[in-house]
From TrEMBL:
This is NADH-FMN oxidoreductase RutF, flavin reductase (DIM6/NTAB) family. InterPro entries: Flavin_Rdtase-like_dom (IPR002563), Split_barrel_FMN-bd (IPR012349). Pfam families: Flavin_Reduct (PF01613). Coiled coil: none annotated. PANTHER family: BLR2425 PROTEIN, FLAVIN REDUCTASE LIKE DOMAIN-CONTAINING PROTEIN. Gene3D superfamilies: Electron Transport, Fmn-binding Protein, Chain A.
């Protein structure tokens, strides 16, 4: 099968998200300039640089009360900071609650019953019991072609690691089984890992 996206795929559901998988989930917490807090998952998320450490996430939708974008991007525009919380399998249900199309005044921490803690390097809340949290300062927001497509880049200024996820000095993802986004309504979790040496190592 071959298709041009501009012509449509002819399938019951768009296969694009099922092709580019698995994708890590950036559970982004923000605080607006008015003090209101937001927590939302984004599956267009990844690390993009080592030195200094940098991450990105993309927001591809909009809400009627947020002028062409979503709460997360709007808050980051206002304050210049955000926190990426890593999602473990055990938190899949509360993460899913936070993905709802709630009005801007709804605090997803409260809505889903998620414990929060204050970040150390930025004025923002983080998910208290997440396996890891990446505190970020905004570097740039890039608008992509298409309606409401924005990529947010941030420099990581503080990192929290949950103690039980550190094994012999290494961050062991099998201790918390990170959640990954697949296509459609599907997810996966990492339960085992293997290593490969690069040529010449």
């Amino acid at each position: 099968m071959f298709y041009r996206p501009e012509d449509g795929h002819g399938l019951p559901h768009n296969p694009f998200n099922a092709i580019v998988t698995p994708r890590p989930i950036g559970w982004v917490s923000t605080r607006g300039s008015d003090g209101a807090e937001n927590l939302a998952p984004y599956s267009f998320f990844n690390a993009v640089a080592y030195v200094p450490p940098q991450v990105m996430f993309a927001s591809t939708g909009q809400k009627d009360d947020r002028e062409g974008t979503k709460d997360s991007v709007s808050n980051i525009r206002d304050t210049g900071v955000f926190c990426v919380n890593i999602v473990e399998y055990a938190m899949r249900d509360v993460m899913n609650v936070s993905s709802g199309p709630w009005p801007r005044e709804v605090d997803e921490f409260d809505k889903a019953g998620i414990e929060r803690a204050e970040c150390d390097t930025i004025p923002c809340s983080r998910v208290a019991n997440a396996p890891a949290n990446l505190e970020c300062e905004l570097t740039q927001i890039v608008q992509l072609p298409g309606a409401a497509n924005f990529v947010v880049f941030g420099e990581v200024t503080g990192i929290h690691l949950r103690d039980d996820c550190l094994v012999d000095g290494q961050f062991d993802v099998t201790r918390f089984q990170p959640l990954a986004r697949l296509g459609y309504r599907d997810y996966a979790r990492v339960t085992e890992v293997f290593s490969l040496k690069r040529p010449g190592e």
